[in-house]
Write a structure and sequence with these properties.
four-stranded antiparallel sheet, about 30% strand, SH3 type barrels, three-stranded mixed sheet, rod-shaped, mainly beta
């Protein structure tokens, strides 16, 4: 009896559970409710500035460095100028006389040299002795009077100018009368002794009479 009661109680419990489960299963699921959408605040980033074109630097023409040459040592000694005397010969009009004979001498040292002038009227003497600086210069040329002068050398290179006057010199071999014109009909001005040197500056058409400068 007791066992039967227990069985009934168990059966009743099961039925209650089944009914409760069915009721729970039959409860309607509430339908979802739709309301207006909730606005969500969004942050808009500020607009980016447009990209700027950075100009490329222009190339500059930088001069290439120039190497400075180093001084080259030289074993060649500095040349010492050779002592020299240059004689320039001119006529009365300032023209150079070519072919004139120039003699340079020094009695104390025995130095003596002779050269003919070039087209420029120049004669050069090298190797003169500067310790004795006084020299005699004699210049002669056809058709000109001979000139002679002493020079003093004070520099290693010395240049002097000599002007020749027109005319030639001649020595009288016999006593001669100097007349006022070409002929015996002209008056005698003076007498030129034998051995006298005169300057001849002209000749007549016959070639027999010479025009000379009267001696002082």
């Amino acid at each position: 009896m007791t066992r039967t009661l227990v069985s009934r109680l168990l059966l009743l419990s099961l039925l209650i559970l089944l009914v409760a489960g069915c009721n729970r299963a039959e409860e309607p699921t509430p339908a979802p409710t739709f309301g207006p959408p909730t606005a969500t605040a969004t942050t808009t980033p500020p607009p980016l500035p447009p990209p700027t074109n950075t100009p490329e630097p222009l190339p500059t023409n930088t001069p290439a460095p120039v190497a400075t040459p180093l001084p080259v040592a030289s074993d060649t000694p500095t040349a010492t100028p050779v002592p020299s005397v240059t004689v320039r010969v001119w006529d009365d009009a300032g023209n150079p006389i070519a072919g004139a004979t120039v003699n340079l001498s020094n009695a104390a040292t025995g130095f003596a040299g002779s050269f003919a002038t070039t087209e420029e009227g120049r004669a050069i003497f090298l190797g003169v002795d500067l310790s004795t600086n006084t020299y005699l210069v004699e210049v002669s040329a056809p058709g000109y009077q001979t000139a002679a002068t002493d020079i003093t050398i004070t520099q290693p290179t010395t240049e002097i100018n000599i002007t020749l006057e027109f005319g030639v010199t001649g020595r009288v071999t016999i006593r001669t009368n100097l007349r006022s014109g070409p002929g015996t009909d002209f008056d005698i001005l003076t007498e030129i002794p034998e051995g006298e040197t005169v300057v001849i500056i002209g000749v007549d058409n016959t070639g027999e009479w010479l025009q000379v400068v009267a001696p002082a």
